[in-house]
Predict the 3D structure of the following.
Amino acid sequence: MTDFLSRFNGGELIAFVSVAGGLLIAATAIIAGTWQKVRRTEIVSALKQDMLNRGMSADEIRTVLEAGSRGCRKGSSRSA
């Protein structure tokens, strides 16, 4: 590893670390965003299954899910 790093002068090493760090940050952000979407989908699916097991109707399930959605929390209303 030190042989590899000794090939670069100071400016090249800074550029290399900057590019590698930027790519690492971008890859981490993509993976974290995808993981978050997967987890939210799993949680919503488990919630729906639990509500079905409790005997709730499709309309009741939709009402519960819409009550927790971002659009409803921001004050937008939907007519029934």
Remarks:
- The mean pLDDT is 87.
- Residues 16 and 61 are 52 Å apart (CA to CA).
- Residues 10-53 form the longest helix (44 residues).
- Helices lie at 2-6, 10-53, 58-67, 70-73.
